[in-house]
Amino acid sequence: MYNHKRTRHSKRFQRGFSLMELMVGLTIGLLVVVAALGSFLYTQISSGVVGDSARLQQEADNTFRILGFQIQQAGAINLGQSTTDPDRVIFSSAFTGFDPTTTGATAGQIFSIHGLEGASNAPDTLRVSYQDGNGTTHDCLGNTLLTSNTWNNARRNIRMDNQFTVDTAKKELNCAGATAAGAQPIADGVEDFQVTYGVQTVAGGVLQYQFYTADLVPDWTNIQAVTVCLQFIGENRGNPQPGLVVTGCRGQTVTNDGLLRKVFRRTYSLRNALL
């Protein structure tokens, strides 16, 4: 009899959760999962933005290094001995600059730097030319003009030309170098490439620069500096920032579509134009 009462007493207190308790537990669990997912997504987006930012910075540094080397070399002319005075060093007179049919130069003009303004706000074209004096100078693609082991005086007047353009479909900055291999990409994620040219002027006895776009340059033989603007775009569409206004290379407002964009500018003085 005693055991029977104990069993009935135990069964009286053995019961599960009520419906309300189950609903509360499920709600708390869902809130924890949602918070965890939100934290994961935020971390993933932040990681993607940081990765994009680092990659664009590296692309810009590498691109400006290539551009800077070529631009600063513009107009470089070889040195040689005078045929009448062996002790006298003179500049080569064989450097002709760009093909006049390409640049529109008239007879006697030497363009060591030249550009084309992009139509309808398209990216610009930049051309750079100088003499390769010893066969070891590299173009924008890392190629040299030296094709044999012999580099005699007759070959010292070869012109090193580089042309920079943008493939807007692939968003690549391309360069056509000294060889006939054609243009090849040197930077990815390039949306815009704008170039302005500094012409040296004297106003009131003061030496100063006036920068022009390619279509307004008054004298291509007097370019003293070049300013390059590059607009890069990231790969991950996870950077929505409402109210963020990004100004592009042409002063335009760039669409805020969640893709990271960075605009870089660099000004180079033409070292050989100062001679």
TrEMBL record:
Keywords: Membrane, Transmembrane, Transmembrane helix
Transmembrane segments: 21-42
Top-level taxon of origin: Bacteria
InterPro entries per UniProt: N_methyl_site, PilW
GO BP field: type IV pilus assembly
Keyword Membrane included in the entry's annotation: yes
One Pfam family of this chain: PilW
Name of the protein this chain belongs to: Tfp pilus assembly protein PilW-like protein
